[in-house]
Amino acid sequence: MKKLLCILMASAFIMSGCSSTQKPDTLAEEPQEENKVLGTTTPGTYSTNDFALYTLDDENYISNVVVVLGVDPDTVEYTDDKAEEASRGVTVNSSVIKTTNDAGTLKEENLISSYSFDGSRIPLSTAKGIMTTGIYITDTDKNCSKAEDVIKAYKIDEQNEEYMTNINDDGSYTIDLYFTRSDDKGSTERIISPKGTDISALNAGYSMRFYIMGGYVHGISAQMY
User: Any idea what DSSP says for residue 104?
Assistant: First the structure.
C-alpha cells in the first residue's frame, strides 16, 4: 500500500495517510463565483503550505496534497487515486540542500526544490484557491481561475508593482511572485517589487509562477532557493 504525502496545516510536514476533512468555520458567500475554491487561507498570510498544490473534494474544498516544496521526493507516494493521477502531470526537480536540525547541526538533504504542473484533467489548487488544469490542458477554461483571481488572492498592486513577465503577442504572460525565506515557524512574506524592479534579481526564498493564457491560469510552477 502506497503512502500519501500530507501536510499538517500549521507549517509542519508529516508523512502519513491523511486529507483535509475539517471544513472552515467561515464559508464563501452564496452564490458561489465561477471556479471558487472553498476552505482557502486568508489573503496576505503565507506559510510553506502556500507552495503546495492540492486536489479538491466533491464540495470544492482543498483535499489532498499532490506536490510541495521542501520534502524528500522519495517519500512522495499516494494512496488517493485522484492525487496519484494528478501527480502524473507534475514535473518535480530535487536538489541537495543544506539544512539545520533542532540541535543546530548542519546537514544535507535531497529535497524537492521546484515543480511545474504541466497538465491533468484533474484540476489542482493552491492554498489561496487558485485553480488550474496545467500548462498543456488549454482546451477549456472551466477549471482554471482568472488572472484577476491571482491579483486579488495575493493582494497585488497592479499600478505600482512589477509582477508580469514573459509577455507575448498572443496576450499570454506569466505572473511571478517572490517570497522571503521561511522563519522557524514556517512563516514567510511576499516580497513587494516596485515598478521598474528587476524581480529576477530578488534575494528570495521561494517563488511562484502563474501562466496566464486567454486571461485564465493555465499552469503553476514554484521554486525554493
Answer: -
